Amino acid sequence: MSDHDVTNEISGPDATGADAFGNSATGRTGEDGDFRYDAAVIGAGAAGLSAALVLSRARLRVAVVDAGQPRNAPAATLRGFLSRDGMAPAALLAAGRAEAAGYGAHLVDARADRVAAVPGGFSVRLAGGAGLTARRVLVATGLRDELPDLPGVREQWGKGLLHCPYCHGHEVADRPLGVLGTHPGAVGQALLLRHWSPDVILFAHTLELTGDDRERLEARGVAVAEGRVERLATDGGRLYGVGLADGRTAPREAVFVVPRMTPADGLLTGLGCAVDDDGRVRVDASGRTGVPGVWAVGNVVDPRAQLITAAGAASAAAIALHHDLAAEDTARAVERLRAGRTPQGVSPTGA
């Protein structure tokens, strides 16, 4: 089977104006052969849905493929998103899906296993064998947080164990806070948290602190707890401290950690997208990768992107993608126009 042969292809709009998912077709007339969609957006978080909204409002045929495993699922609320502060993450996604679908985007609840370049576009193979084709692809698959292997960490993730001061700092302000020394960024995180609380302890754990680190921490009033961390101490599902290997328990009401962030970029690297020195897929200011026709936005290429910045970057990427399609359609139209013309003074019959 060639890359272009996709089994169980998801059908596009039929003669009644509805596609296989019951969505009405857009008014756009396609000029692109067998491609079912103009754009396939892979990932339906804030970034993917923002891109899908822009593209579908441009009357493009858009498929949004998502496996339903958002990174922020453990969090009860999202913060710092203008007009959506305090909203449940699931509610934001539900609203975004409804908005995109309202403009004709086709929501596909499946995992994309592979994207392959085919003449004129891409095939997207879905888990279970189905697939679809699109002229362009925008990947917004996010990243995976790799957490330290300590008792209580998984259970407290998104509750008593947090990672982003801008997402959670205000909600735990003025409380006793801790920072796990499992990542070189832990020192900077502890210094930053002093803006939210006067009581911050950095648990050295596996981190080797330099003399400069210790001086800066002391200057900012951040205490250092030496020794390895053994567990997060909880009672009835509530975090109350950090247990050390020597038997001590330091009372803390919230603990921060810098997770090791691994981009979920297998679809992009599988396409041959170039990566930078940090191992991240390289994109330009519009999110365009080195592979023509492929864009990538959000945490899959920028681990520091917040929800609101990921959504904004995705909007810009969608506009760039649309411009790319418009340029291609215009070039084809010019070719057809030129092909239909005859030399001046010569009749079509040559008489």
Question: Could you provide a short overview of the structure?
Answer:
With 351 residues, this protein is an alpha/beta fold. It contains 8 helices and 17 strands. The longest helix is centred in the C-terminal third of the chain and has 34 residues.
Explain what you see.
By secondary structure, this protein is α/β, with parallel strands linked by helices. It contains eight helices and 17 strands. Strands 1, 2, 3, 4, 5, 6 and 17 form a seven-stranded mixed sheet that branches. Strands 8-15-9-10-11 form a five-stranded parallel sheet, with helices on one face. β9 (177-180), α5 (186-193) and β10 form a beta-alpha-beta unit. α1 (46-57) runs parallel beside α2 (89-102) and α1 packs parallel to α8 (307-340). It starts with 36 loop residues before the first strand and ends in an 11-residue tail after the last helix.
